[in-house]
Amino acid sequence: MFSKCKTCSKFFEIKFEENIVDFTIKIQWLQWTNNNGRSEKEESEGTVKSCVQHLSSLIQQYLSHVFIKRAQSSLFEELKEITDDKKVLPQVDYAENFAMDQQDAIQPAYWNTRMLSIFTAHAWCGANNYSFALVSDNVTHDKCCVAVCLNNIITKLKQYLPDLEEIVFFSDGAASLFKQRYLLQNTTRMMVEHTLKLS
After folding, report:
1. Are residue 112 and residue 181 in the same domain, yes or no?
2. Band of the pLDDT at 110, cuts 50, 70, 90?
3. Domain count within the chain
4. 91 and 60 co-located in one domain
């Protein structure tokens, strides 16, 4: 997947580039680009050669992404298989913020819509599974909110599973929410507070 071995280092050239009949033909292709923080589909135009060169520049990043995604997915499936009343695997994430609309609201109410956030979790616990949806009017999704939500989930899981020893949290890996130093410090605090192994 990283094109480092002798077998695969020229794989793109052998399987793809060598099968192209004419590099000079003009073509059009669509591609997702990031413009000012927004993803947009743009149409590009050029020769087959320029398109292949562009694709070749993206292939390494794509292969690395696919490898990491498959490794994470494989680990997640393995962990699900070994869960029980002592070891639990919750998958956690924030849902999109929801607008609190009223069906028959007056027009100015449109500009004063209140928002709420939902922190979702599903915990695999062997034969039993538990789902959580923690609703809050705090829509910041910051480290403090995440810590409160995780603490709430841990407390509930301990009530449901008195023999609980270990919790392995899985998330989408957002750096601002889950992969940052404050949450790691809070995790060590929660381990002591709840006498659990957390990761």
Report:
1. yes
2. low
3. 2
4. no
CA distance 182 to 178: 9
3-state secondary structure of 98: strand
State the pLDDT at residue 77: 95
- One domain, residues 38 and 122: no
Domain annotation covers residue 75: no
Residue 40, domain member (yes or no): yes
The predicted pLDDT at position 113 comes to 76
CA-based nearest residue to 171, from 97, 99, 95: 95
Q: Which domain holds residue 160?
A: 80-198
Could you write out the DSSP letters of every residue in 117-139?
A: EEEEEEEEETTEEEEEEEEES--
Which of 4-13, 75-84, 141-150 shows the highest mean pLDDT? 75-84
Question: What are the C-alpha distances in Å from 125 to residues 22, 74, 85, 90, 161?
Answer: 57, 18, 6, 9, 9
pLDDT of residue 4: 79
